[in-house]
Amino acid sequence: MKQNVLSKMGRRTGVPPISWLMQTALTRPKLISLAAGFTDNSTLPVEISRKVLNEILRSPKTGQPALQYGITAGEMNLRTLTAKHLQKLDGGHDRAHSPEHVIITGGSQQLLYMTLEALCDEGDIILVEDPTYFVFLSILQSRGIKARGVKLERDGIDLAHLEEVLERLKKSGELRRVKALYLVTYFQNPTGATTSLVKKAATLKLLKKYERAAGHPLYLLEDAAYRELSFSSPSPRPSGERAGVRGFELETKGLLTPTLSSVGGGEGENAPPTSLTLPGAAERVIYTGTYSKPYAPGARVGFGILPEPIFTTVQRIKGNHDFGSANLLQQLLAGALASGLYDKHVAKVRKNYSHKAAVMKQALAEHFPKSVEIWESGGGLYFWARLPKKISAGVKSKVFQAALKADVLYVPGELCYADDPSRKKPDNEMRISFGSASVDNIREGIRRLGAVLRKALAR
Amino acid sequence: MKQNVLSKMGRRTGVPPISWLMQTALTRPKLISLAAGFTDNSTLPVEISRKVLNEILRSPKTGQPALQYGITAGEMNLRTLTAKHLQKLDGGHDRAHSPEHVIITGGSQQLLYMTLEALCDEGDIILVEDPTYFVFLSILQSRGIKARGVKLERDGIDLAHLEEVLERLKKSGELRRVKALYLVTYFQNPTGATTSLVKKAATLKLLKKYERAAGHPLYLLEDAAYRELSFSSPSPRPSGERAGVRGFELETKGLLTPTLSSVGGGEGENAPPTSLTLPGAAERVIYTGTYSKPYAPGARVGFGILPEPIFTTVQRIKGNHDFGSANLLQQLLAGALASGLYDKHVAKVRKNYSHKAAVMKQALAEHFPKSVEIWESGGGLYFWARLPKKISAGVKSKVFQAALKADVLYVPGELCYADDPSRKKPDNEMRISFGSASVDNIREGIRRLGAVLRKALAR
Known about the structure:
Two copies of one chain form a homodimer. By secondary structure, the first copy, chain A, is of the alpha/beta class. Chain A contains 17 helices and 15 strands. In chain A, helix 3 (46-57) packs across helix 14 and helix 8 runs parallel beside helix 9. The radius of gyration of chain A is 22 Å and the shape is globular. Chain A starts with 7 loop residues before the first helix and ends with a helix. At the A-B interface, helix 1, helix 3, helix 4, helix 6 and helix 7 of A face helix 1, helix 3, helix 4, helix 6 and helix 7 of B.
């Protein structure tokens, strides 16, 4: 009697895999977690936040507006600073970076949620990278939205496969249910892959080609949550030629196969411009970013840049959710950005993660069997490890159980694959994070994991 | 081609009436707004917030956790403090006040949203007070949930009418679509009415009676957003006899008719215990409250106390929305509560609103025609005015236009009525707020509005 009072959505909304992993971690106090996508405690901007908040709360004149209701889309000051910040990262491009289309949200997660509310009915389809961000898959599942996977290469999705998937959906009559393609474009969660600008442009073009058959726009939903966590400096590019794309052609890269190989190694490749810089972006790109990862998850300020009619719709939906995000946090971020403290902080954060990634890389080279393929990233929080296909690293696998027993936790890669009937979910992969673990724990954690893998491979 | 990419919900989500009112206010700089439900800028806790945040961000040890991710349901510390705070307000009762069932949200608005997500499919029915909180109606409309109104008296809903509505829905076979009854129980938005404990108890009993025919639980969704804004001291009652209800009987009160009459006048009636203190509450009461109104909307921390399976479902949904509310704000509220600064602040806030309500009351007596019926409240932010039935005060009425012309804004009462085919929406009512206007503007605003009404009635 009790369960059937729930909505269909209520019944569909499952236990999030991440909370199960966190629960598991709590039961083993000595466990080293290489699973959490948490940021590093030691880099959190305690001093900066104190300074900025003191400045805001120093007088009633500045303090009162920060403690009052604001505007649903967010404070114009922060929206303007955000648009400028993104323009700077994109080398001065301002094509689709209008503050009027910026909306401030409770992390980029809330933006993703509301965008799906605005776009999708039950039974609609979102194309995703294969593998992709697992909480995004949880939202889709909960809302009865289908996900269809597009193969992921180290510089972004496999364009030929995207076309194949679109063609297949067109033939089956399902294309009219497709609303968007979701890409995590920088140092992707979980693989660390960064989508090249060439691939972004080709993707937009390909989506456009299928709009007629779909009967409506096909959006590119670009999630740039990890964008600022580049190991090398994402310094502004000269505006003009390089940042934009004029005549591009589909680039087909052979699959890289060395055991330890770099994903988007060079400086330029580490921070390609967003798809907002491309022709037609203002109409078709839904861009999301966040200050959670580079600044502080505990302040949880994210944002989106949205085309119409998505902007208006999401803004109205946000009115129903919460009338707009907490002003105090918006002003904290605005203060940090305007004072330049934000940029200084991010430089420090990048240096820290870069160091920790190097430590993990060395530990992986030392302890992991050579038959494990490692995807190394130019930023973000993750390494991606692919075991030989016969070895499962899934939730119920011997490897996962042995790792738990050895007090080390990773995210089984299979959790990052959509329920897509057109292929079996690979279960031989692992997401390994250096985000929150200390340098010592990274070394020890990889040592433990390496021992588990050696044993599994020796069988 | 563009609009049809939106989901059904996206297309249904309309312009919120409140943003239209705010927009209108912006175009007339000299306008006195008695419309907004904003809190008074001058009472916002700037100094307290600075103090508490400095304490938190004083050292990395306390600052880092506040800037890191937390737990989806909220920090256990704040959940415990919240449960204790509510217990105290309820006179020591702890029947349904367990911290394990407290969830922290982005204002109580987000809790309302997620509760409806957990409970309702398109076509389901929520019973509401007639009139009720208009943003709640916006959520229902956006999600395709039907609202059915129950007549509101000055001490809560009309119980005979509730039974009549339930009986009618049972006969039409629609009772199985009913999931909950939504009541704003303290100093209601928009009327200022406070629901007596006797009525809460009778309501719970009546809902229980119809559960069998519904085939599932019928929840009482108690929204206590304005609870702490009582003009008289909501001091803890002695626990035991008075707070709980043993043998109660349906109280039928005659409609009070004096021109200026008090709604819940005495101290006890100002702050009756919540329905959480009633037998069976732990299973059937969904309680929501907020720190936005009594503390600061710009910190936007709300909460719910939820029975199973609603708690677990809402917690999972919140995982998909935002993984939990910003830790920094949760710790701000926890710090304010634990230090006693919160209680001191609320006492100050209540005194301020009490004074402003008295100013408005006097102005109403002076300037409003005697034929206008005023509902005076014992707390909150609103007066409710009912014009003679032949006079419309609706959005398109001459009165509203004349008021705008005279540079004074109110909320037309008709916006607070659900789309319920069983009755015509009354359009002769006004919500008048003393929340954000200054004492001078309250006097001047009511003078202007009084002049408009005198003119309208003289026609």
